[in-house]
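Repro case for the chain-ordering regression, as requested:
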Amino acid sequence: MKVKSSYIPYLLILPAFAYLLFFVGYPLVQALYTAFTQNGQFSLATVRKTFADPYFWEALKYTIALAGVIVPTQVGLALILALAVNRAFKGKDLTIYVLTIPLTISDVAAGLIWYSMLSPSGFLNKLLLKIGLINQPIYFFGYQYRHMEFLAIVLAELWRATSIVFVIILAGLQMISNEYLEAAEVFGADYWTRLRKIVIPLLKPSIQSALIIRTLFAMQIFGIVWILAGRDIPILAGEGFYRLTELKEYDVASIYALVIAGLSLLLGALYIKFMKAEYLEVRR
Amino acid sequence: MSRKVHLVGVLVLVLLGAIVSGCIGGDQTTTQTTTTEEVTITWLSTQLNPPEERAFVQEQLLKEFSDQTGIDVNFIPISYADLATRLEAEEKTGKVTIDLIADLHGGLDFFASKGWLEDLSGRKLEGRTFISTFEKYATINGKKVYIPWMSATYVMVVNKKAFDYLPAGLTQEDVMKGTEKWTYDALLEWAKNLKDATGQPQLGFPAGPKGLLHRFLHGYIYPSFTGYQAKNFDSPEAVEMWKYLRELWQYVNPASTTWDAMGEPLLRGEVMIAWDHTARIKNAIETNPDQFAVVPVPRGPKGRGFILVVAGLAIPKNAPHPDEAWKLIDYLTKPETQVKILENVGFFPTVQEATGAIPSGPLKVIAEGVTAQSATPDAVVAMIPNLGEKGGQFTDAYRTAFQRIVLKGEDPEAVVKELGPQVKQLFQEMGQEIP
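-- result from build under test --
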């Protein structure tokens, strides 16, 4: 059978297209329908109901605040780690291996690990009590200690998800040809100048993809918050889940899902627009 | 372009076709099994739905039943909403395929009020005595609409070390038996003693997002202080109750707002006194049966409010195999079977003979606490209201009140006045009496 060559690209994307149509397109249309209709009529009642709920604004605030603290810290940390590891030394492979272990741990498991470390009778408190630094356990959990819960979530997320950024940035670093750096050295550029003028610009594509991936995941943050803070710190995905499973408010839950999707799209677009990747070769 | 779109369309249709035909194929296999010669009865249950409980029903209970009677049972776990829809459809069209229903009291009560359930008064079960409270609730308008099958409740668990700090005038005996000295005020004093002695709050509640704190609020402390679950939601007594709870919360471990079940915090030693569902503290008692005591809840000014969860077995009107279904009811309520259910899935027996047959050990510890609670003379028994899909909104109102009054420190009177009408409206919308 002869297939017209102009069909081939379409045939090739067909499986992915069908997948997206069924698992993203259909639910998206369904969510839009559930969110914006009432008894078959277009209606903004659900939107008003959602926006009138103080939980929604708290969830939005905390989701953005968590992402705002976690994502930049992760990128900074991962950059330092990757630069430190990207040279020849004994035990390099082992170090990389150890640094990427948290990548394999689910967020719920990570939440439980950090919970048992930070709880009043947990490892950290026991240690501090034993060496006499404190004489009362530090409380990390509970509604009254929300700022500490926030800190616990940040710690757990940094530990768990920095490795994905690290892996991406390390891969980017290893792609940078030594010739550029050697040439800069010949012209007398010191380490910081080389880092600023060569390494970081060349890393931009990697940083961009790491940022996009991490920010999108940060918008969907759920398991770790649910374990460590319950609804003390409301987050968009958690509130959507609560509305759906506990209150059976499918319409309100759809709005939450759409807000997460909208935020992700917006932030993704912003990254692509404002972080134009630079390649030395094509610079004119 | 239109040809390309056409091609995509055809492929999508083929995919759709495959899925649809798959569904039809699935249906055919089920109709085949029901039309075979040997008797197969259909049992729809909203209980024992999680995978491991389902496996216990299918691999142990029903296997033994089939071996004894030669009757095959098709056990179908189902949600309450789906069960109600299916039963209504079948009863209205007269084509009933369900032989047996297992559901909570509230659901069965509703089905009975619609006239969808067989009156079981004429049938007899030998060699067992049902606990009278359950028997009473199963008889509605003079008809016995279901046979009580399993029960569950929520209790308090006390780490035995805490008994060293009892307030003056309260003995361990009072707490274990649930005498009239075991009050919410005594609990407050006890909790204060514990905090003073250990430096840390020792009381715990499952106030996390999946915890059952709302059951404590509407089924325990509300009836104890106001006499009712929802009727006096915004009464002056309720305001007093919220003030009490706010005071008590000073002695509650603050991490309670992140806990969904109290078994682990008890085992980790983070709290000495906890309240929770029996199934959710079972692991603590099983790990350390000598360290913990299961005790009745304290009483308030209006009595000792607690929730009884009862699951019953009912036969729908015009069921195809009522006699075979009755044989299954007979088997499921035998004392031996009831003990087996307790041992495997942690639901408590509804027949007296079974309570005596529980072997000593952790389950006996829990069973003794549960029995002591049920036997208290000042009991104000609460049944979980059956509001269907609105059930979530009912519990959410109590949780919201708790959050705003106890955690955020808002004025209790203003909050209950605001939420009270919402709670009562839920019952009015469902055409039910406010409990």
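Ordering looks correct now. The radius of gyration of chain B is 24 Å.
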